[in-house]
Design brief:
It is a single chain. The chain is an alpha+beta fold. It folds into 3 domains: about 5-180, Jelly Rolls; about 195-230; about 235-294, Homeodomain-like (Arc Repressor Mutant, subunit A, Orthogonal Bundle). The chain has helices spanning about 100-105, 135-150, 155-170, 175-180, 195-200, 205-215, 220-230, 235-250, 255-260, 270-280, 285-294, and strands at about 5-10, 10-20, 20-30, 35-40, 45-50, 55-60, 60-65, 70-75, 75-85, 90-100, 125-130. The chain has a 7-stranded antiparallel β-sheet with strand order 1-2-3-10-5-8-11.
Length: about 290
């Protein structure tokens, strides 16, 4: 029998449906701000937003999804920011988890014809965003009563709903991309160390979170970073952001505060201090002096 559980913590409610001890369906309601790291080395998953927004950071990029949108993700490590709905202040999503062993059982170790598509390369992006789709929307809303009435759920129901969903997403307008991604779904994507760092220079991620996306410990990450860049992660990222800010100061007439926040500085005072340390003048003085040279 499936194992259904409900966990309520401060600001977070989580309901799950499992099969053979493995998490398959879950409904999560939180009151943001809420950030967490998801380690999924052996399974893929699909997130569907019901309320609020989410930002997902992976080794090879960033995706933002809002209500009615979904995100199909390969196995790997991800960082998520859950953002509140403007009216309720809540964030709700439904997640579906794909375990290789369970999928093989569903199709008796054969990939169904509607999911077959030849690979087009050696690697595939880790995330695929699906825009609003009424069929997926109806499917997700149809799951909700079962989270509240677990006595209605049995093994056969879980298997049928999982197969139904896989058939459904393959028939959407994203069918070609999904069929291609299915060929890579449970294969970890290899991203070079430099690729992960460069893709997230302007992401709101800590050094610890970058290390997670790089699939290494913080000590290993710091050591490899210094070997490649000859300086600490914090200094390198800060200087790259300041250099870009200096370009924006000269190329645009935007306010200094707007440039500071775009370059991921938490406050104008923090930005001004860091800018002065690097360029020996304030942002406004930098802009004025360069304009006078023209």
């Amino acid at each position: 029998m499936p194992v259904n559980s409900k966990v309520v913590k401060k600001g977070r409610e989580r309901k799950t449906i499992r099969l053979e001890g493995k998490l398959v369906f879950e409904h999560i309601k939180v009151r943001p701000p809420y950030r967490y790291i998801n380690k999924s080395p052996n399974k893929a998953c699909f997130f569907y937003m019901m309320e609020g927004d989410s930002i997902a950071y992976s080794a090879d990029g960033t995706n933002r999804i809002g209500p009615g949108e979904g995100l199909l993700m390969k196995c790997g490590h991800y960082v998520y920011d859950r953002l509140p709905d403007h009216t309720s202040g809540l964030n709700q999503l439904v997640a579906i988890h794909f375990h290789p062993g369970l999928i093989q059982q569903l199709y008796r170790n054969e990939v169904p014809h509607f999911l077959r598509q030849e690979r087009k390369g050696d690697r595939m992006t880790t995330m695929l965003k699906l825009e609003s789709c009424q069929f997926i929307d109806h499917f997700m809303k149809g799951l909700m009563p079962y989270f509240h009435y677990p006595e209605m759920v049995d093994d056969e129901w879980v298997r049928l709903k999982l197969k139904e969903f896989m058939h459904l997403i393959a028939k959407t307008s994203y069918g070609n991309e999904i069929r291609e991604m299915m060929g890579y779904l449970f294969s970890p994507t290899e991203n070079s160390f430099r690729e992960v760092v460069e893709r997230h220079i302007f992401s709101d991620l800590s050094t610890e979170e970058l290390a997670q996306l790089s699939n290494c410990s913080i000590a290993t990450f710091n050591r490899r970073f210094k070997q490649i860049y000859r300086e600490s992660p914090g200094r390198y990222v800060r200087n790259r952001r300041l250099d870009f800010a200096s370009e924006l100061l000269l190329a645009t007439d935007r306010e200094v505060s707007a440039i500071a926040y775009e370059c991921q500085f938490k406050s104008l005072s923090h930005f001004s201090t860091a800018f002065r340390n690097r360029f020996r003048c304030s942002p406004s003085e930098f802009r004025q002096s360069r304009l006078m040279e023209v």
